[in-house]
Specification:
Blueprint: E1 8-11, E2 18-21, E3 27-31, H1 34-40, E4 45-51, E5 55-59, E6 63-65, E7 72-75, E8 82-86, E9 93-96, E10 111-113, E11 128-129, H2 139-148
Parallel strand pairs: 3-10, 10-11
Antiparallel strand pairs: 1-2, 2-5, 3-4, 4-9, 6-7, 7-8, 8-9
Length: 156
């Protein structure tokens, strides 16, 4: 990505909805909150915060699911795969579920959130951990520290 013109393609389980990312993530994360545990049917959800201008739906029409609140969680209307989230008040990025990408092998969570709700056995390789969400004043430092790691393979 960056200046190379490469993109990350992906889609839901049934293939009716396809997405493309053409910008590297600002940050990668795992969320251990009870809501993400329930929506993902797992111990935590995974996200890659992609700049909004670097994200597009290329096929199909995802539908809003989850809590149907101000934060919008998008799912395939057929297979119900949870594909991405547009968090309330953060229009500058889209949280893409990296396992929806055709090649998610580059993904590793840099931070983990809501560790106060995590299952005792759940472990991630995250570098930073937060009991809830990180404070808003930490965002610039977190994205800077993540960027210092270099772009994931295929994004350089």
């Amino acid at each position: 990505m960056g200046g190379s013109g490469r993109s990350g393609e992906g889609g839901c389980r049934c293939g009716q909805v396809r997405i493309r990312i053409v910008a590297p993530p600002l940050l990668t994360m795992a969320c251990h909150c009870a809501g993400c545990q329930r929506m993902s049917a797992s111990a935590f959800s995974l996200s890659a915060a992609i700049p909004s201008e670097g994200f597009s739906v290329t096929k199909g029409a995802p539908v809003i699911g989850g809590l149907h609140g101000a934060t919008r969680h998008y799912f395939c209307p057929h297979c119900m795969s949870w594909m991405f989230t547009r968090p309330e008040g953060f229009d500058m990025f889209v949280n893409v579920r990296p396992t929806m990408l055709d090649d998610p092998s580059w993904f590793s969570p840099f931070i983990e959130t809501f560790t106060r709700e995590k299952l005792a056995w759940a472990k991630t390789p995250a570098v930073r951990s937060f009991e809830t969400f990180p404070p808003l004043d930490a965002d610039a430092a977190l994205t800077r520290d993540y960027a210092a790691l270099g772009e994931p393979p295929g994004f350089a």
